[in-house]
């Protein structure tokens, strides 16, 4: 039934149509009525009145897009703002940061933001904390050309070798009770002589 969302309503069957064409036309009309009913049923009564006069689903969808859709420009602005403003949080792993960055990059590519691989790499490197400065210097000095996925894999390896967790310091629980005073025992420590 999803095809009725994209294809406009056929106006009418031409005379001399084949039985297959008639079946296809009838199926389209039936599916259009079902999808239209579902769409209208999901709306409030007030909104429903605005769309009730439209007969085919593509007309309803087009009108809804005109009225309710957020412009792509606004979405692209929000996505680029999030991407350029992302910084790796202290104490978090570079892998989780990489996953976040990758999702933002994919979103920007879907929106056709027009950023090239080098720009993505530069922003990713700038989003890292100062503890990654040796990695960044090495990456730039050696003129490495990597994809975003390769860069994130390199960062994960770098983190594993250089940012090993610091040894844990064991802290014993302090006792709050006082030691009992020793009472000298007269018989203690003496041997009986025979």
Question: How do the strands and helices of this protein lay out in sequence?
Answer:
Layout: H1 19-41, H2 45-51, H3 57-68, H4 72-85, H5 94-110, H6 117-126, H7 133-141, H8 148-162
Helix pairs in contact: 4-5, 5-8
Region (Disordered): 169-194
Protein name: Gag-pol polyprotein
Organism: Sesamum latifolium
Written description of the protein model:
- With 194 residues, the chain is mostly helical.
- It has two domains: 2-68, no CATH class; 72-162, no CATH class.
- Helix content is 55%, strand content 0%.
- The chain has helices at residues 19-41, 45-51, 57-68, 72-85, 94-110, 117-126, 133-141, 148-162.
- Helix 4 (72-85) runs antiparallel to helix 5 and helix 5 (94-110) packs antiparallel against helix 8 (148-162).
- The longest helix is centred in the first third of the chain and has 23 residues, at 19-41.
- The radius of gyration is 35 Å and the shape is elongated.
- Residues 166-175 have low confidence and may be disordered.
- It comes from Sesamum latifolium.
- Residues 169-194 are annotated as: Disordered.
- This is Gag-pol polyprotein.
- It holds the Pfam family Retrotran_gag_2.
Please give a quick description of this structure:
55% of the residues lie in helices and 0% in strands. With 194 residues, it is mostly helical.
């Amino acid at each position: 039934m999803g095809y009725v969302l994209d294809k406009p309503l056929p106006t009418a069957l031409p005379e001399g149509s084949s039985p297959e064409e008639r079946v296809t036309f009838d199926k389209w009309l039936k599916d259009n009525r079902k999808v239209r009913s579902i769409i209208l049923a999901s709306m409030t009564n007030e909104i429903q009145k605005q769309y009730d006069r439209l007969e085919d689903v593509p007309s309803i969808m087009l009108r809804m897009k005109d009225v309710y859709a957020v412009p792509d420009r606004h979405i692209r602005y929000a996505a680029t703002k999030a991407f350029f403003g992302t910084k790796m949080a202290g104490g978090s792993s570079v892998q989780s940061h990489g996953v976040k960055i990758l999702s933002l990059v994919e979103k920007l590519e879907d929106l056709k933001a027009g950023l090239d691989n080098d720009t993505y790499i530069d922003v990713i490197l700038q989003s890292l904390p100062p503890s990654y400065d040796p990695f960044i210097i090495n990456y730039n000095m050696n003129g490495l050309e990597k994809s975003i996925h390769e860069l994130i894999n390199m960062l994960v390896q770098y983190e594993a070798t250089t940012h090993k967790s610091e040894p844990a310091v064991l802290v014993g629980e302090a006792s709050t009770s006082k030691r009992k005073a020793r009472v000298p025992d007269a018989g203690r420590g003496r041997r009986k002589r025979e």
